[in-house]
Amino acid sequence: MDATTTRTWMIRWLLALCALHVAAGVLLPWLGGAALLDGYHRGIEAAFWPAGAPAQARALDGWWLALFGPTVQAMALWMAALVWLGGRLRDARIWLWLMAGLLVWAPQDMLVSLRAAYWPHVWIDLAALAAMLPPLCWLWRRDRAAPALRMREARA
Q: Which of 46, 96, 122, 151 has minimal Cβ neighbours within 10 Å of its Cβ?
């Protein structure tokens, strides 16, 4: 597979991840308190109230999860816009800004989860980094070298 095809697939992969985040953000307000997430809620409750959660804990956790949905949607839309712009403009700085955003967010998010001793969030964050950082690094390196490549091709 040549570099142009690889670049196209990397961008499609990132846009698919953005679409997945938008979908998750849309669903969170609707599913925040659903029975489908009982296991998740029990894990959170056990992390904060090992002796037993108060009766209102589940409602509060469902509310926070629902509230988080629009934030996820907005961030995913902004990320999709940057991925689209990076794909069109071939500006390496865009990929660098996306990487910077992930590297600012993830350690803090993981630290908050570790302080609560809630490992599922840490694993989700690591999976997100593993899915997004390699293509962003590749795109940054490729687009950083692109101006020099285009100049050499123009001379030939």
A: 151
